[in-house]
């Protein structure tokens, strides 16, 4: 008989985390050839082997998966040993790795994508399935940008949890998110705007798809049938990349779901938002996290322009 507590234990770990842990175990056992339960020495050798090729954050994710396996099985956790910690610290010193970040989707580029959506939607050749997809994607871009949502947050929005106040905005209840460690949920507000309005895009999409319940952003097949399940977070990345490419935005492959989040953070920084106000709006708990998302202009070049100084290198202005 299944233990009734098992499903609650299962629910305590998010699906993406479980997949990451499984991948870590598979990599350690099948790719590297390690044995479980592991020793501190074998973990250290594993880290040393992949130190030249894997980023330090990837190695830490692998360790988290291995630690979870040992804890779940009741074995001592070898990843917490001083030996392993010292090896990991040495790897960080000898193999510094620049953190890769998604390219921010700026307001001008958001306008370009939305204008492309509107242009195609106005075409007489736009089929019903195509129209549904475009109207959904337009709402996804605008809601995602103006609330700086992650892809997983966008895919967790249900129609039942959205309240509309005409000409004022939306209220969206998110049952959980990455920073909501206690799974209490939070209610966020999406503003109504004169241009690039997320509320109008939301209303157009709900009306077009005749949505009454379920996920706000479901999958759509080639016949225009809506899925019962939401888009997968990875599919949100595909939507953003493809939309940017079709709209003619250069380097479209450099965009991802975090591009909406970084784009909003950079826009709000340019509008001189207080960092605390930005953190509260987006839901960040740590200042360092917030600063990683802000793509500010080079302060030296900004001062040079403000003071009328010529650029140091031709073509910088």
From TrEMBL:
InterPro entries: DNA_brk_join_enz, Integrase-like_cat_sf, Integrase_catalytic, Integrase_recombinase_N, Phage_Integrase-like_Recomb. Coiled coil: none annotated. Residues 102-306 form the Tyr recombinase domain. One of its GO terms (biological process) is DNA integration. The keyword Iron-sulfur does not apply. CDD domains: INT_Cre_C. Keywords: DNA recombination, DNA-binding. Pfam families: Phage_integrase. GO terms for molecular function: DNA binding. SUPFAM superfamilies: DNA breaking-rejoining enzymes, lambda integrase-like, N-terminal domain. This is Recombinase. The lineage of its organism: Bacteria, Pseudomonadati, Pseudomonadota, Gammaproteobacteria, Cellvibrionales.
